[in-house]
């Protein structure tokens, strides 16, 4: 399965039903989970890495001067 980060992040950035807080909260949740996984020396799921990058990129696209 190929994940198109640019396309998915553009869709999320243009979705007005998702607030800036929703982006922040989702990123915080993913980062906390990645930290927990790392501390337990477990394998990091690639889907989580992609999800984090998609959210970070979408947030940057929505607020180019702030992120």
UniProtKB/TrEMBL annotation:
Q: What is this protein called?
A: Uncharacterized protein
Domain of life of the organism encoding this protein: Bacteria
The record lists the organism as Mesorhizobium zhangyense
